[in-house]
Amino acid sequence: MSAPTSTAALAAKNSRPIRLHQPLRFWLTVLQALLTCLLCAFLIVPMVMSILAGLTVNYFRGLSSGLTLHWIETVLTTYGDSVLASLYVAAATLAIVLLTGVPAGYALARSQTRLARLIEEMLVLPIALPGLASALAILAIYGGFRGFRNSLWFIVVGHVVFTLPFMVRSVAAICASVDLRILEEGAASLGASFRQRCFTIVLPNAWPGVLAGALTVVTLSLGEFNLTWMLHTPDTKTLPVGLADAYASMRIEIGSAYTIIFFAITMPLLIAMQLLGARSRTPTGPGNSTTAQEHAP
């Protein structure tokens, strides 16, 4: 009888601290949830209020004045050129960054020399510098070409300088995680040409990095303000610049309608980035890996 009794007493003694700590854990969980909700409200409520301002007849009267799409229609009809200019600049920036950033990222991932690491660090300088400083440098060098200065391509140059490091880093990271050198050498030993290795081994393995970099480039190009504000002219006004002008000199409903259009363009891209990030974190089995034998001629 003594052994079971001592065992039960020991178990009861060990369970006391757990029962004593349970209320503390409960209140810590409640406090953490409360702080999370407050932080989300601090970030989300201003955006919700800005969107509602663009849908109400009178912002100062609130929802009691009624809902309307008049302000969005006004922005699309009166300032639609700014929206189209932003889409044009983002598309041109993406095309140039893809043509230059993907080969650069692949080359930097393959090279192990100090020069490659130096070039990689130099590419980050446009991100480290303020956008205004980069814009002033572009103005000082290329601002004298009047036709180029007054075109949207002048803004595209600034966006390429700003977004290129994101594409290069994204592609270099995915290429470094996969040992492309071994795969390419295996394919070459089986008779694959450089073109075949590029389209059947390099690009399929680097595709997640290319897609992630492309979404990042488009999102940053659409939302870039500091650099664009310095480089734009009255004839080359983009969406962020028009948004700032609307909030500064017009009714707040017009500026909020600008915000709604901006959200409608960028939110699908942000959601796609989140889905891509979740997919890239999914473990990949051996059956999904790309091998040299699968792509050999």
Account of the 3D structure:
- It is a single chain.
- Helix 2 crosses helix 13, helix 3 runs parallel beside helix 8 and helix 6 packs across helix 8.
- The protein is globular, with a radius of gyration of 27 Å.
- The chain has 297 residues and is mainly α.
- The N and C termini lie far apart (79 Å).
- The chain folds into two domains: 43 residues; 215 residues, MetI-like fold (Orthogonal Bundle).
- The longest helix has 52 residues.
- The C terminus is likely disordered.
Give a brief rundown of this model:
By secondary structure, this protein is mainly alpha-helical. It has two domains: 2-44; 74-288, MetI-like fold (Orthogonal Bundle).
Structural class: mainly alpha
Tell me the helix content: over 70%
Give the integer mean of the pLDDT values: 79
Question: How many structural domains are formed by the residues?
Answer: 2
**CATH architect. name of the largest domain:** Orthogonal Bundle
The biggest sheet, with number of strands, parallel, antiparallel or mixed sense and barrel status, is: none
CATH topology of the largest domain: MetI-like fold
Low-confidence stretches: 283-297
What's the β-strand tally?
A: 0
H/E series: HHHHHHHHHHHHH
Keywords:
disordered C terminus, mainly alpha, 13 helices, globular, 297 residues, MetI-like fold, 2 domains
SSE topology sketch:
Blueprint: H1 2-53, H2 70-78, H3 80-110, H4 114-123, H5 125-128, H6 131-142, H7 146-149, H8 152-177, H9 180-189, H10 194-223, H11 226-231, H12 239-249, H13 252-280
